[in-house]
Amino acid sequence: MPTFSREGEGSGIEVERLTTNFREALAEVSLEAPSPMPGGSQQIDFVEVLHSPAMESSSTSASMASALGRLLSLTHVSYSYQVNGVLYRAPGDRCSVTVQVIVLPKWASQSITCTESTFEAAIRSAAYEVCAFILPLTRLVEKPPWAAWHGLAIPHGLFRDVQEAQRCKFSRRYDEALGKYFDAISQDPHNPFLRLEVGFIQEQLGLSLDALMTYQDVIKLGLERDLGHFSWMRGSPAYFRKIGTHRNWWRSALLTARYRQAVLLGMGEQLIDDWCSYKRIPAGERKRDAELQHLGTRIRQMFGAYEAGFAEYLNDHGEEAGDGGRRDVKALLDCDFSDEPGDEGGKLLLQEFFQFVGQSKAQDLCRAYRFRRIPGGTVSRVALRLMLVWAPARRCWTRATRRDLARREPDSAKEWKAPCELKYARVYRNSHLAKVRKSTSKVLAKISGREWQWPMTVEHINREIRIAWFSGMPLLRRSPWHDFYYAACIFAIGLLPLERGRLCNPEEISESGDRNDFTASLAGEAVDFLDRACRRADSSSIASMRSWIVAEDPDLAGLRTFTEFVDWEDEHYPIKNPAYLRPVDVHGLELTRYQHHLVEKVAGLMVQIWERRECELLSTHPHADGMLQRWIDEENSTWTMARAFVVDRHHWQTRFDFIRTMQEFAQINSFLFEYPCPSYSDDPVMQLGESFRRRQGADDSHQLFQDTVSSVHEHRKERMGDLGELLGTERNLKEQICITEPKASSQKDIRRLCIERSRMWARLEKAFSERPGEDTVEVLGDLASVFEEPGRK
């Protein structure tokens, strides 16, 4: 690619630097398909496409003859690509780049012009346009998510939105990535791989119900015969009948969606948290409330067919399904649970219902792929078999949690009378054939000793994993790394605490003599499988899964508090601040700090903006070109968006609008505002682990740390609620906090306004700034004193 040319001399355009930026933008293009688990894939170099058309991807099992043929083909290049470009200034002091792709020696493309506010942004847009033009001409278009565009011109905005979304996802800017993916879906609505990426990000943002329905939409896009239904007369969707592409290009997306939906249903506690989250939102304009009601309606329609089978399942385990109240399975999904302790039993019953549905879908998935070839790049057959071990282990833990709740509340109207173990590992719908199969399963489980009960023993888990492993593993093929990871998750389920917010109690898990040895053996087996998984995977795959393993996967919540996992994390994921102690709910702590820290970052940005404005008064008159009015409009708009964010902070679209507005304000004032989701390693709570580790002699040192983390977590949520009360209604906000143009427009009065506004934002920044103390996290400022001097003139 030759160096770009410049239109006009003396324009101050750095041609060499911008050309280098263009080459770097080409190298950063990501063309990877979604992985079976949430987490970013590594990027590949798009410039490899430009090297030679003979460099095509192939299977690792290619023969020596084909490899030699590809090597010889490098000596004969039939055509190549050349990109020429011109940089110039557009009207309105905007920056433009015009590029043209020449396919030597045949033909050239039309000129592509990109105009942005800066040359850097225009260069990046031009790079995306070039890639969108070249991609359909190469074999890389057959890879997801572009297989449907084989031989077609990819829309200019579609490729750009997908790449921007990938960049935001890799940098943990999840709200921005979600917005970009929805922009891309609006241009390619039937692309299943884009919808999968949306589901993964929704899981990472704690939007479990949204992710569940996203996966359901992907499944509905698939062919009926792949779901086990024989409706051949309906035909295939036109979107999947692309001529010239691999006919099974979409099957990997369908399999991944069915797998993630079953896993998400098995993690019923996440669905329950999202189901009941709108009860914890402060009163006001709750957009998330309306979304949850709509999602609840769809879920009731989708899972209504499982109610009869779940009622029969409860009867088989000694529970009456129709005794009224929370046990009425018909009305279970119609209940609105609150945070009152009396409703905890109903939440756990609904959680077990979701797990029942999840295992039913997992069984259908294993049955559908019993003999069918599994698409490459997705889950393995062993992973599907391990789901039939993971799902009953999850249900067994939920039943143990319900039993523990009944024991802690002996005066409750409904005491626990049913046994904790599972009479049969599989779940069945209510039918005559199911009754026969259930009776057979009970007898076989009793004879073979494969009954599921709590606490789960290491021997029982090892036996179930071996049976699933050898029944699904193909001969002469090495198991992928995620098979070992799933096995580690099964062992880690045995370490989940029975009471939320508490540590794993050995007395709840084992009734043997040495309970600590029992928990250590479970933790040791889980960490051993994690270590084997990491040794079989490449470094890029493990790096992309870091946040999911160390913070987000709920299966590992109990394991993360054990020393074995902390040592394993220090070995594979070394960080500058060692993880001495880990809280149980790491992901929840990250999401709360994500909202809390955003207020601090916005306040810090506004402090810098008002301080710069104060300095600009020395050289510029504030009334020139409406500068003062622009300052006032930006200030009032920031407070209006801040109030909307605080009131409806659980609504990701509101957070996205707030972040995007602040990015625009920062760019206007020559600042850069990018807000990634903070990691737990950067949380001040993490630094408390060192002080608590000094008390290792005390038996309650770990639990004391967990209680401190829970207290900090609650204080952050309360601080966000207090800020919402201070901001008040929209009318009160305009009257008390927002400003109008000062009556005396002298430079002295405007300077006083800048100082007062800067101090107000500085007080808000301190009220949300934290530092680690001796035993807890200290807040640097008082929230009540933020608006003592509103600065309204």
Overall description:
The protein is mainly alpha-helical and 793 residues long. It has helices at 15-27, 47-51, 64-73, 119-134, 156-170, 174-187, 192-204, 208-221, 251-266, 268-275, 287-303, 307-316, 344-368, 381-408, 432-448, 458-472, 481-493, 506-509, 515-536, 539-544, 546-552, 563-572, 586-616, 627-647, 652-668, 688-693, 701-727, 730-736, 747-767, and strands at residues 5-6, 80-90, 94-104, 107-108, 112-116, 770-772, 777-779. The strands form two sheets. Strands 1, 2, 3, 4 and 5 form a five-stranded mixed β-sheet that branches. Strands 6-7 form a two-stranded antiparallel sheet. A hairpin with a 2-residue loop joins strand 3 (94-104) and strand 4 (107-108).
Which short descriptors sum up this protein?
793 residues; mainly alpha; five-stranded mixed beta sheet; two-stranded antiparallel ribbon; 29 helices; 54% helix
Describe what is shown at a glance:
The protein has 793 residues and is mostly helical. Helices cover 54% and strands 5% of the residues.
Distance between the termini: 58 Å
Q: How would you characterize the largest beta sheet? A: 5 strands, mixed
Mean residue pLDDT: 76
Low-confidence stretches: 42-62, 228-235, 280-285, 322-327, 506-515
Q: Into which percentage range does the β-strand content fall?
A: under 5%
Structural Rg: 29 Å
- Principal-axes geometry comes out as globular
Q: Structural class of the helix and strand makeup?
A: mainly alpha
